[in-house]
Amino acid sequence: MTDRKYKETVHTDKNHYEYITVTHDENNVRIYTLKNGLKVFLAQNFDAPRIQTFIPVRTGSNNDPADNTGLAHYLEHMMFKGTSKIGTQNWEKEKKLLDQISELYEDHKAEQDPEKKKEIYKKIDKISQEASQYAIANEYDKAISSLGASGTNAHTWFDETVYKNTIPNNELEKWLKIEKERFSEIVLRLFHTELESVYEEFNRAQDNDTRLVNYELMDALFPTHPNGQQTTLGKPEHLKNPSMKAIHKYFDEYYVPNNYAMVLVGDLDFEKTIQLIDQYFGTLPYRELPEKTPVVEQPITEVVVRTVKSPTTPRTQLAWRTDSYGTREAMLADVVANILSNRGEAGLLDLHINQTQKMLWAQAFSVGLRQYGYFSIVAVPKETQTLEEAKNMVLDEIELIKKGDFPDWMLPAIINDFKLQRMKGLETAEGLATTLYDSYIKGITWEQELNEMDEYAAFTKEDVVNFANDFFKENYVVINKEKGVNDKLIRVENPGITPVKINRDTQSEFLQGILADKTAAIKPEFIDYQKEIITDQINGKKISFVKNKYNDIAQLHFIFPLGSDHDRDLGISTQLLQYLGTDTFSPEDLKKEFFKIGISNDFKTTNDQLTISLSGLEENIEKGIALLKHWMQDVKPDQEIYSQFVGTVLENRQAIKKDKNRIITALNNYTKLGSNSRFTDVISKEELESSNSEVFTDRIKKLFKYPYQVFFYGKNFETFKDYIGEYIEPASLQIPEAKQYPEPATGGSVNFINYDMVQMEMSKIGKGNDVNPNHFGKINVFNEYFGRGLSSIVFQEMRESKSLAYSAYVSYAANAELNHPDYVTTYIGTQPDKLMIAVDTLNELMNELPEVPIQFENAKNAALKQIASTRVTRNNIFFNTLRLQKLNIYHDFRKDIYEQIQSLKFEDIKHFYQTEVKSIHFNTAIIGKKENLDMDAVNKMGTFKEVSLKDIFGH
């Protein structure tokens, strides 16, 4: 980790393509620029015969027209709908109808009379129905999944729209052929059904508490700049009045090769890859970008206070506007954020507020954007504290930085941590590719990105203090998130869409060509765990080792066959430990000591296992072990800290019971397992309050007397073995007997929670037969074919054809342990007035498995290609064996799955469905506003019960 100066150098490859590299770049990234301005970032990673691909476009919601907000995001959705070649049976006939629809949308946008707008919409719906007979839904996804691609997705943000795929390296040319076609033109087919899906996404965002606060925060920080004035999802009036012509214009202006990049990292050949990219994308024409007048914000000269309301726990968020990403101001703001919060370790907020439990939680962070950015602190007070008190407590910590009242060792430790996180981030293909596309979007060269660490390291304490005094003034925004009714929720009536044809049995000539173009298959490689994992015995403990071939970061795991089933209060004991010290170190000093040596610790308790982990530079692992053992064996009970801890735990329990996502998790668990489950079996308020800290610290002190095994992931096993023996003692305690929890039959109950939200969310959960590993191949293909993914039967019918939900799926989940049942879960998230139609549609689909041979073959081949091009690497080599052992499997079971899928026929899936799925009876979980429930329809599902939060949480 020596400091180096990175500099660009120019080279020419054997085919005369000029490219840039950066000296001392350990990733050997090559940066090409084609004649049409297309930037190409290539790097090699040989973990697996796959390539992580990103196509980042330098445009996002900030470039939306003021009267068409949400356009960039909607365009992103439409990029999956195909072209004049992908997704059509007869382009000439389809185009005429799409042109008519486009004109009608212009009429619809211009019309002010609500009744006349409805009439125009009916015409749109009618012609869309006619046009759909020529459309083939989701054909882009069928083409891309036929390659064995995974992670197919996209996202839109302020200044970026990024398209993502991970592909087998033997399918590179076909991927380029598909993407070149996609980026050549946009066809807005199946437009109004997708528009309804985007509106459902808007509704989901309204129910998202974090977005609610963030929208208000950005609006206050940026009163004139698009950062604050144009949300990615757009304004509802614009979503309901779209312009297809405006989308085409936006695509033509911004989706040009000089405004996007190709980022490929993986098992690739540099010279062949750039030739192929040039062959396909080099023909796209360069086009000048629209001139944009920069929007300059006036300085904030006073404290701006806003209030928003929602059902969740109150909190306050402060933010100061910063200069753009990569500027000195933005970098110093990032340093200050880490002085306050460094991954929950040893920042001022971590130690002075979170560690001492002065409020529920506080955290600082900074966000750098292409233009401007912001520094922010979130603070969650206790019930006895006001939002004003929480604000003042975090401002006090900023005052300490202004005074220079933070330790001298902290700045170098933060820089070392930056370097450590950078090293971790760049070691995988996805991590490196993400950093490359992010630097491209922000207009930062790879040379600048690599030199960033040296710039950070050059900052002195004096620089930080001077910055803090100049920057933190009465020039910030406060968003107070109070508990209450959100009166800004927008409830939209169902426009009445006629289901469109999706023609899942047909294929375009383009897709037929892709499928007919056979490439040399990648041969799957299955791992020999006995060969890859080196084992030894030290002081009666099994020691396993996997070599880290990538960097100097090591991991050490102490793995105990002891979990919450054996000791219900194990998890809460390890939580309490985080707040306690020893005779030698205060709790705060312990955090500092770990941070100084760059070692992080983690305690993870599951029902049958406790894993205590250390991670950091290999040279410091022994210091980390010594510190960990000292902490655990000499932990000092403290009744005052314990009482504060109990108060924090109980307040957190109340906060969780206001959070929609946590409520959904609890409701689903209750619906699946009833009132007697691991989830509800928690230590009670009375037990916590009547207990004392020694009960929990004694448990911690005894932990290393139980049996456990050790796993070390690093470079030097011999050196590790030389010192680990000092820290291992023979087992003197036996693992307690595990408590058995029932897994009751499902069927006939409907559990409902009333929550103030726009959407309604429903899950059906059914208990299947006990897990059978011989079904794993069938499950893989069944989920891909029927229930999950963009090409699945459920997605196509629920979203593409009928626009009934933004999110809908059916998932068959195999149990991770023998002699326990599998479960099938169905999910629908939609507007209340669509819910029962969506339920009926899903029931119809599940009554008899639809047979679509083309789709089955695609699902089967995609599964085979994914397995063939996937490799088990790094610490997964070891942890996979632990997972497989619970199924009594001791080899790489992917081999069995692969062979099963190879011989799989649709009849096998149908038989699996008939015997393992169709007979399942379901319980139902629903969350939403009670006034929106159709009780007649709900009562037909089973016995209705409005459950309480105490029922589902157990406290």
Structural write-up:
With 955 residues, the protein is of the alpha+beta class. It is built from 37 helices and 25 strands. Strands 1-2-3-4-8-5-7-6 form an eight-stranded mixed β-sheet, sandwiched between helices. The chain has a six-stranded mixed β-sheet with strand order 14-15-19-16-18-17. A hairpin with a 2-residue loop joins strand 14 and strand 15 (541-547). Helix 1 crosses helix 10 (244-254). The relative contact order is 0.11. The mean pLDDT is 95.
Assign a percent range to the helix content. Answer: 40-55%
Tell me the strand percentage band.
15-25%
What is the average per-residue confidence, as pLDDT, rounded to a whole number? 95
Q: What structural class do the secondary elements suggest?
A: alpha+beta
Strand segment tally: 25
User: Rg from C-alpha positions?
Assistant: 29 Å
Give the overall silhouette.
globular
User: Uncertain runs with pLDDT below 50, 5 residues or more?
Assistant: none
Largest sheet report = 8 strands, mixed
N→C terminal distance: 50 Å
In spatial order, strands of the major sheet run: 1-2-3-4-8-5-7-6
Number of distinct helices: 37
List its traits:
single chain; eight-stranded mixed beta sheet; globular; 37 helices; alpha+beta
